[in-house]
Each structure stands twice: as structure tokens, then as C-alpha cells.
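Q: Could you predict the 3D structure of Sugar phosphate isomerase/epimerase?
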Amino acid sequence: MRLGTCLPHDESVYKNGEFNIEKSVEELARANITLTMTNFPIEESEWESGSVRLSRALHQAGVSLAEYNPSFTLQPLERSQCRLHAEKLVKKMAIAEQIGCLNLAICTGGYNGYGPHPRNRRHESWELLKETCYIVSEEASKRQLRSRILIEMVYTSVIRTPEELAKLIGEIDSPYIQGHMDIANCLNFDNIYDHSEYIRKAFNTLDGRIGSAHIKDLVPGESYLPCIEQRKPGEGIFDFGTYLECISQLPADTPAMIEHLEKLDDIKQAYEHIRSIARSKKIPLWGES
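A: Sure. Here are the predicted C-alpha cells for Sugar phosphate isomerase/epimerase:
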């Protein structure tokens, strides 16, 4: 398992009032964290120039990029958008590959971004998603790319369970469309307090189809309405012991990335927390003896 984190985005990595990618990568390296992930720039006009700058910063700091993730979701809303959507993804796959990153993790999303919508459960949404994936696979094959799209499950989206993700990957049947594991996105009030077996079942369901994993903690929301809130690893009730044991059964170079933290101190604390759990479970970490 290759343990890494997101890049810091707090005031410690700002320069002249703006986020500075060089300083962000440098601070991560100073914390002895040498594997990271980040998102593409939002504006298409900055995809290539921003990626060159990112690559240069990573090389200078000795940090590797495990995931270079699209800044939009996979799900088009109309059939007429499928090809354009897919071609933008393939363009990002090519750019990521040029800077040495082969994994692009992306959520399926839906008609309300990452939020719930009744159309997310309809067959038409499944078919739009499939068509987009077919086009991605076809175009990536034409360009003989090595990078791949890793689809992330989100409970409120079109792909909300490991079973649905396994079905989609099986139907597409392409090395360019594989799975990403972030089982925390699938938990709800029915299993939040007892999810160890659900984690094991998810890994079994997606056996051989997982390209990377994300790490975050969860707590039930303080409300009489069912809701779940995200926390820094170590501040919630997520079963990291079981989760890391399952990740350790994947190929040894599989990235496991701590996400959604902005402060450098939080990133360092979360990283050490996950490392300590891995050590207690005698789980080998890539690059550590």
C-alpha cells in the first residue's frame, strides 16, 4: 500500500495572497510525505500549463503524483453531451500521462452535482453513463494511452454501491474504465455504526477492479434527520483497521490517499494516525521497511 495525502491549501502555502503550488508541494515534502493527489485546474485553458507547473514542482520536491483528478463529474446530463464530455476526459488522461500519472479518479455525479436527485436512480442515467464510458474507452484506445479512469462510488449519485460499480465495469470491459474504492461515500444510517462486514464485502465485490483508494473519517450528524458528516482521520468512527487490511490485499503499489484536508497540520496528523494503525496491523507501507 502506498500511503499519501492531498496537498495543503491553507495560509501556510499562500504567496502574495494566492495559492502557490510550489510552496504546497514543498511543505508536503518537508513533512516527509512523498505521495500526493490533486485536481486539474478548472479552466480548460489552464489544463496544460497548470500541469507543467505542477510536474515541475513535484519533481523539484521529490514528490510523486498518485492521482490527477478531473475537476468535474463523469455524468453527462443529456445524450448530446456524451461525446464532448468523454473527449474532455480523454484529453485529461493524455495530459496526466504526460506528467507521469496514470490514475484519474472521478465521481459519477448526477443531476444535482454530488447531491441527490430522482433522475439519478433512473435507467436513462445509467445508459448515459455507459455511453460516455464506451466513448472514453474507444478514444483512449485509439491514442494508445496507458492512463485510466477510476470511477468513484457516491451514495447520492448514479453509481451508489459496489455492486453497481462492478456491474458497470463488467459491461464496459475496458482497461481504461476501472474502479476506485472510497467506501465511506456509500455509508448511511443503516450501517454507519456497524460497517466492517460491508467494507469486506465491497472489496470482494470489486476484486481485481480497484485502482486506488481514498481515506477519510465519518461521524453521524447531530440531528434527528439522518445525515453523516466527514471528519479528519482519528476524529470519527470509521473502521480503518478493516479498511486498511482490505487495501493491503490489493497490489502493493495501490495508492491509498487521505483526502479533503486543507491545513498542513491536519494532513500531518491524519497521515501519522493512519500510519500508526497500519503498523499496529503489521501492514507494510510502500517505501518503509
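Q: Anything worth pointing out?
A: The radius of gyration is 18 Å.
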